[in-house]
Amino acid sequence: MEHLGTVAIVGVGLIGGSIGRALRARSLADRIVGIGRREAALEEARRLGAIDAGTTVLEQGVAEADVVVVCTPVTSIAADVCRAAGHGPENLLVTDAGSTKARIVAEVEAVPRGVATFVGAHPIAGSERSGVAAARADLLVNRTCVLTPTARTPRDRLERARQFWTLLGCRLVEMEPEAHDAALARTSHLPHAVAAALAAAVPAELLSLAAGGYRDTTRVAGSDPDLWTAIFLDNRQPVLTALADVQDELASFRRALEAGDDAWIRRWWAAARARRARFDVPNPRPDPEMP
Asked: Which structural domain, as residue segments, surrounds residue 192?
């Protein structure tokens, strides 16, 4: 799959638009079709170079597609995947960009045509900005994309999905859907929740005194509330487990602060600092255990 024929993108927002712009910038597809709910949004996507043509009728948009990428909210992805699978050509590959996977994969695999064409995916890239105007051709370059095949995933579709996301510049990781959701609850969903809590905890009248610490730690709280409400609820139990762990961390800090335990606080901060340093370093050394 070094060159694609027609790629249909269902939901041409930040991620879908970035996929379209990447396909065009790399000359990977003959035709890019956008599928959405509003003609005006599709026309904007066409004007910005994210798609070649658009339609509000999904069945029409996928009719000649070689690949369909579903980039709609997590509450809609399973149904959109099944609709696309049911109306595309026999050799169709359907993949998605959802931030949760277990429920989506289970619902798609309950439909014969769905399981025959689908490979779950999650490109871990994004921004607090939304919409196709924020799309970038390089958004996925060197970003991890998690594929979530199961024992029922057709091997040929899995290989094509690997090639598709690699062509867009992604680094691939493969995990079971449930393992993906447990991991992303900690690495993505929890940070967004904590950012929102911190943003809300600072009174508006004090914002003139806020600077880099507030700006950097609350940046993702500027994301779309509908998007994140759906993600939190769809991944409820893993997020609750992750929340319990961060609450334990804060409770330990509170006890040390109440006791004036400077040695514990110093160790705690040093361990957190070392963990954060690993984020930007390839093949990092082990960091100190959290106290």
From this structure: 180-260
